[in-house]
Amino acid sequence: ELLSFVKRMLTDDTFYDWRTKAGVRTRSVMNDSSIPLAQPMVKAHSYHNMDRVVQHRPGYAFGVSMFSSRIRAFEQTNGENLQGWYTGSGMTYLYNKDDDHYTDDYWWTVDMYRLSGTTLTKALRSTKRWEGEFLSKYDFVGSLSDGTYAIAAMELEQWKSDLTARKSWFMFDNEIVCIGSNISAQEDANEVVTIVENRRLEKTKGENAFMVNFIQQPTISPWSAAFDSVTTAFLKGTASSEADIGYYFPIPTALLAQRTHSSKLPLEVSSGNTQTTPAENYFLSMEILHGTKPNQAEYGYVILPGISSVQLEGYANSPDVEIIAQTPALHAVREKTLGITAIALFENQLTQVQDITINKAALLMVRDDGSFVVSDPSRKQGTVTITFPEKIAFSSNNPRVVIDMQEDKTIVKVNLTGMEGKEIEVTK
Questions:
Q1: Helices within 288-418 (DSSP H only)
Q2: Nearest partner of 345 among 334, 336, 358, judged by Cα
Q3: Apex CA 115: angle with CA 112 and CA 119, to 5°?
Q4: Residues 51/39, Cβ–Cβ less than 8 Å
Q5: What is the pLDDT of residues 234-288, one digit of tens each?
Q6: pTM for the model
């Protein structure tokens, strides 16, 4: 099974040429017809003690990197990762058929104030040791998965700033729904932004096609344009059409898009690097401008990996997902084709989402048949109570789960004490 998995990984990897770079043992595995090729990985996994979550789907993998009262915002050591300030602030990673995206001098050249998925103030940061390698004051940071789909959520603060935000990501079958609320900064006068994307482009000229609301934009760099009412954006991949990415904005959104050419010496990021010629790359970024001193600002967008521009138009006209709640305390999404309701409740308050009631801050994924997965990212909630407005014959031998099936409703109490953020699943 392991050898089949290795064979699948190397077969799918168009960046690493195993024929010329792999050792004798690896080449013998790849050339052995008796070792079957594993199926593409379809899996979601929460790394609860790392504040990380990863989802693998056919054609792409998606990850979210967070920090909390348990995990520091980033780590700098031995002169490495000098500008890693926001790599744990909800940075999102999208791996697709552009296998080399995060290689080929990506980390030397990417704008570290403009990392995908992050919300931040544009205050200048120091590269001094321990400048920003801090633990958050917030506990409610973590994720949940049912093995296939996932939810991640975090309460965010920024180093030496009063910026705060609540962020969540809902990872389904072919889309990732990204929601933010409570984006506020009353003392920090720097501009606040959310980075929807900052993608490395084709190496030589960076002329990947880019459309906003299905209108082709210039391919030259540098280039910048502000858009008032964006519902869709589309970025052409480099390797193939499977690397194309669509973006859908359920509520028309003001957006700043930029093409940049980055040229930097690697020692700016790694003090021990002795390379004397600048590393160079082209990037395309999109950011939502929240202005200075925002009060309860918010955002919402959907990432659609591997979608064509034609498919994106169809999706925008009839999306599979609906954001059913985006309040200061609650983010909730309905995935209509999968029959899943996904919830990130940030506050301890009795809350109803459609016909489901939950009494405490938690992450909750409910399927149409009533089966569900629940977790407590804060690790402080104890028992969470979920109420359904009908009789549901749950099947659970878990001593942490108490089911009270009444005439007109079903009450399920799930004891999450000591679970360290791990999820519990209750099925029918």
A1: 309-317
A2: 358
A3: 110
A4: no
A5: 999 999 999 999 999 999 999 999 999 999 999 999 998 989 999 999 999 999 9
A6: 0.95
